Amino acid sequence: MTPEQIQRRLDKVSPEDFSGRTAERFRQLWQLTGLNWRDTLVHFAESGYRWKDAAAFFGMHPTTLQAYCYKRGARIPFRGQTHPEAQAARRAAVNKHPERHRRYHNRANYTAFGVSDSLSELLRRFGHPSLTWAAVYGRIHRGWAIEDALLAENGQPPGNASTKGKAA
Prior knowledge:
The protein is mainly α. It has helices at 3-10, 22-33, 37-46, 51-58, 62-71, 84-96, 98-105, 119-126, 133-141, 146-151; strands at residues 109-112, 115-118.
């Protein structure tokens, strides 16, 4: 089967068409397109995609896809992202199907103090100088309000500050 024929079949599916664990997703690929998962991944590799791009196509994490291939002895010839052929092929793929690449690579937007931007930009604008991106991200995912996560410097959300060592 030629790369064009494979690509035509892959154009008919999107990440939303897949669900379940990795093996189930590959079975769904076979049912929808008639393509073997190994042939599909080799096609992605030869077209300049990276592990991250191939995983985004299936709606999974790149490490999950790599582990699945490793456990089944599949050696997929993905090239590094700095390889010139890979960069050219990736640009062509992104230009052809930007929606597939946007889904995985977009930075999440957060809103704090009436401003919507990436967490890095909000931290740069409003955050305490001693805070790191990872600290703020962790706080948000532990349930802190975004504004509190950006401003609190002692590890305690405002209002929950410890009174240890303070006179009552």
